[in-house]
Amino acid sequence: MKLTVRGVRSVEIEMSEPQRAADFYSRIWNLTEVARDNGSFWFRGTGHCHHILAIHPATKGPAIRRLVFDAANNDIVQSLHAKVASSGCTAEAPHALSGQGGGYGFGFVDVEGRNLAVVCGERDHADTADVRDRPRKIAHVNLNAAQLERSNAFLSDVLGFRKVDHSGPLHFFHCDSTDHSSMVMGAAATPTLNHVSFELPDLESCMRGGGRMRDAGYPIEWGPGRHGSGNNVFCYFAGPEEFPIEYTAEVLQIDDSYEFHGPEYWKWPPGRLDQWGITPPHTARWKRIQDLMLFPAGQHRL
Ligand SMILES: [Fe+2]
């Protein structure tokens, strides 16, 4: 077993209108509510994680409160805690968690002030069969980095990810799973969220999801298309309060023999933005919402 995480377990977000956002993520985005308490809502996908999305009332407008990584066992939690603590980052001690889903883990602040956490789940789900049109899990999270080299080094050297591709401005990071990548980093002015990607079971679900979103007044901001690096199909949307979200499917499955390729390898012919050659360029709105969501300070404790 590798000394790293298995992927992104959950994303916690802050919304000015959490009830409205909760309605969207259950009725249109097709997650399933597992808990609500004190103005917050928790949702699962069809995969094992107790919840993959938490919505909390905002203190200062929409934001990304925290990313939670999935550890396979408590030993991984403790080993990663030792690495994070010795890197000099602010980290709480691993402890039993009393919040939704329970488990064992710790929260910390990374090199650019992001609130991250590593958790081994306790009340995870045994019923993990795919359901058409319903997200399984968080496929990946794409972050903006003001200090790209530092952020990339933190993912690799401290959290144990492996950089598997560099395509255009994006750096793709693989961890202890067969998914091509679970984290993506790109350079930007601020360490904000670029987008959160939810994995659907197949291409059909991705296309049907695009139609469901259009019907509900959420047009496709980029896609449908099939990416080069990662080979996944994609549709991007502006969710409630301009939160940037992606439906994806058919993520490339890899092992340790996967060979890294750089920007020259992944370069598209002029005018092409995906493998099929069908997606129009992303909208001005999509470009605008890719760096709106900040990590609020002081929210790293689980
Ligand atoms: Fe993505």
Task: Please sum up the structure shown.
The protein has 302 residues and is of the alpha+beta class. Helix content is 19%, strand content 31%. A hairpin with a 5-residue loop joins strand 15 and strand 16 (244-249).
Describe this protein with a few key phrases.
2 domains; 2,3-Dihydroxybiphenyl 1,2-Dioxygenase, domain 1; 19% helix; 6 helices; alpha+beta; 302 residues; binds fe (ii) ion; 16 strands; 8-stranded mixed β-sheet
Task: Provide a descriptive summary of the structure in words.
The protein has 302 residues and is an alpha+beta fold. 19% of the residues lie in helices and 31% in strands. The protein is built from six helices and 16 strands. The longest helix is centred in the first third of the chain and has 13 residues, at 74-86. The chain is globular. It starts with 7 loop residues before the first strand and ends in a 13-residue tail after the last helix. Bound molecules: fe (ii) ion (FE2). Fe (ii) ion (FE2) binds next to strand 9 and strand 13.
CATH class of the largest domain reads Alpha Beta
Strand order of the largest sheet: 2-3-4-1-5-8-7-6
Query: Structural class given helices, strands, pairing?
Result: alpha+beta
Name the beta content range. Answer: 25-35%
Tell me about the largest β-sheet: 8 strands, mixed
Q: In whole angstroms, how far apart are the ends?
A: 26 Å
Tell me the helix content: 10-25%
Number of domains: 2
Strand and helix layout:
Blueprint: E1 8-15, H1 18-27, E2 32-37, E3 40-44, E4 53-57, E5 63-70, H2 74-86, E6 95-96, E7 104-109, E8 115-120, E9 137-145, H3 148-158, E10 162-167, E11 170-174, E12 183-187, E13 193-199, H4 203-215, E14 222-226, E15 233-238, E16 244-249, H5 263-266, H6 284-289
Parallel strand pairs: 1-4, 5-8, 9-12, 13-16
Antiparallel strand pairs: 1-5, 2-3, 3-4, 6-7, 7-8, 9-13, 10-11, 11-12, 14-15, 15-16
The structure holds fe (ii) ion.
Fe (ii) ion is lined by residues 140, 142, 195, 197, 246.
